[in-house]
Amino acid sequence: MRRLELDGGQRLLLCARDVSEARRYEDRLRSLAYEDQLTHLPNRAAALAWMEAHLQRPGQGPQLLFWLDLDGFGRINLSFGRQAGDALLLTVAEGLRQFSAPQDLVARLGSDEFLLVRSLTGALHGWLALQREAEATLSDLRAHLARLIPEAQVVGPWPLGFSAGYSVAPLHGHHADALLEAAATALSRARLVAPGTALAYRPTYTTSLRRQVALELSLRQALENGHLRLVYQPQCSAQGDLLGAEALLRWEDPEHGTVSPARFIALAERSNLIHPLGEWVLQQACRQLRLWLDADLQPPRLAVNLSPRQFEVTVPPLVEQVRVLLERYQLPRDLLELEITESCILPTQGVSAQVKALADLGVLLALDDFGTGYSSLSALNRLPLHKLKIDRSFIQHLVGSDSAPTIVRTALAMGRGLGLEVLAEGLETPGQLEVLQSLGCDAYQGYWFSPPLEVDAFTALMASSRSLRQG
Ligand code: C2E
Ligand code: MG
Ligand code: MG
C-alpha cells in the first residue's frame, strides 16, 4: 500500500485513482481467472461456478451437458499454422454463442474443447425423450457450424466436425464436477469410435475407462521395466530361402498377461506413449542388427513397423532418430526397412517430405497392410517405396474367393509396374503359396513358413541353413 502524505481533496482524489486502478487489476485478474483469453468465453472454473449455482436453483429442470471436441484440430494447427487454428476457434466460439439460448451456457474447456449446457424448459420425461432431445440439439449444432465455417473461410474448405460426450443433470449427478466428469468420460469413449461420434454417458464407461487407464499405466511401466521385447518373423522366397524379417513387439505383463499388439499399440497411439515406444522399438531393432553383425551372422534386412503418429512433430524428429541410430550402430543403410501404413501416405498428412528424407538416409520403405486403406496410384508413384506388403485378409481368402485373386493379381501387377517388390502377408497354406507363386509374387511371410520367432530361435536360424523349406 502506498502512503499518501497529501491533505484534503488532493488525498481523496489520489485514493480514488488508486481504487479504480485496483479495480481494473481486480477485473483483469477475474477475467484471467474466469474467462478464456482467446474467445472471451467463460473458462472451466467459470463454467463450474455457473453450473453449481444453476443446479441448486429451485424449479430447475433437466440440463444437458455437451462436451465437444473438434475433430482433427491438431492437424489444422500443424498444416495451416496457429493463426488459422485461432481463427477457427474464434469462429466456433461465435457459432456456439449464436446457437445458444439465453438460459444456456457456452464455455471453452481446453484447446479445442467446448462446453454447451442446455437447460430444458419443457417437462421431458424418461431417458429416451432426453436422448432424442440431445441428438436433435447436436444435429442442429452441426448444421449451424457447417454453415458458418465455410463462410468464415478460416482454413479453406475444411469440413468442421466434432465429437461429443454428454451427461444429463440430475440423472448423472447433482454436482457440476460429477456431471462434467461424466460428459468427459462419454467423450473419451466417443473418440474411440470414430470422428464425429456423439455418445451419452453410461456408468459402464467409467469402469472400462478405468481399466484402460490402468492398462496404459502398466504399458508405461512395462516400457520402463523392460517387460517388452521384439520377436522376429522370417520373410522368405517361395523356395523358403531367408530374405528378411519383421520385428514385432511383444508385451508379457505380470498383471495383465499377454496383451496383443493390436490392442496395446492402439492404446499407445491414443496416448503419447507411442512416441517413446516407437523410439524404443527402433533402437532395439538397430541394436539387435549390430549384435548379429558383430557375431558374423550376416543378418538379412530387418523391418520395423512405424505408427503414423511417429511422423508427428517430436523431439528428436523421426528422421533424426533413425539417422542417429544408423550412426550409433554403424549399420549398412539397406539393412533397415521401415513399414508405413497407407494412412501415412495420404497427401493431407504432410508426411511425404519425411518419408522422402527417410529414403534419402538410405533405409528401405515398405507399405504395410496394402489394400486395407486408401492408396492412390499417384501417392504410390510419388513416394520412394520399395515394397508392397499385401494384407493378410486378401491372402486368407485367396483360395475359394472370386474377388481376392483379382485384388492380389492387380496389386502384383501394380507393384511390378512401379518397380516394387511385392510380399504376401499371412501365408498359411500350400494352396495359397501355389496360387501366389503362379501370380509371380516375390516374397512371403506367414505361419506356413514360420511364426514370429524369439531372438534365440531366429539367431539359430541365421546360423544354420537359413532355409525355411517346408517338408
Ligand atoms: P503387421 O505389421 O501387419 O504384422 C503382421 C501380423 O500378422 C503380426 O501380428 C504377425 O504375428 C501376424 N501374422 C504373421 N503371419 C501370420 C499368419 O500366417 N496368420 C495369421 N493369422 N497372422 C499372421 P502381431 O505380431 O500380432 O502384430 C499385429 C500388428 O501390430 C502388426 O501388424 C503391426 O501393425 C502392429 N505392431 C506390431 N509390432 C509393432 C511395433 O513395433 N510398432 C508398431 N507401430 N506396430 C506394431
Ligand atoms: Mg508390419
Ligand atoms: Mg501387415
Written description of the protein model:
The chain has 471 residues and is of the alpha/beta class. It has 2 domains: 20-201, Reverse transcriptase/Diguanylate cyclase domain (Alpha-Beta Plaits), CATH 3.30.70.270; 211-464, TIM Barrel (Alpha-Beta Barrel), CATH 3.20.20.450. Helices cover 48% and strands 18% of the residues. It is built from 16 helices and 14 strands. Strands 6, 7, 8, 9, 10, 11, 12, 13 and 14 form a 9-stranded mixed sheet that branches. It has a 5-stranded mixed sheet with strand order 2-3-1-4-5, with helices on both faces. It is elongated. The model is unreliable at 1-9 and 11-16 (pLDDT under 50). The structure holds ligand C2E and magnesium ion (2 copies).
β-strand number: 14
Bin the helical content: 40-55%
Outline, from the CA principal axes? elongated
The figure for the number of domains is 2
Looking at the structure, the CATH topology of the largest domain is: TIM Barrel
SSE order, as H and E? HHEHHEEHEHEHEEEHHEHEHEHEHHEHEH
**CATH-defined architecture of the largest domain:** Alpha-Beta Barrel
Strand content: 15-25%
Briefly, what CATH class of the largest domain?
Alpha Beta
Computed Rg: 29 Å
Q: Which stretches are poorly predicted, pLDDT < 50 over at least 5 residues?
A: 1-9, 11-16
Structural class: alpha/beta
Could you give me the name of the CATH homologous superfamily of the largest domain?
EAL domain
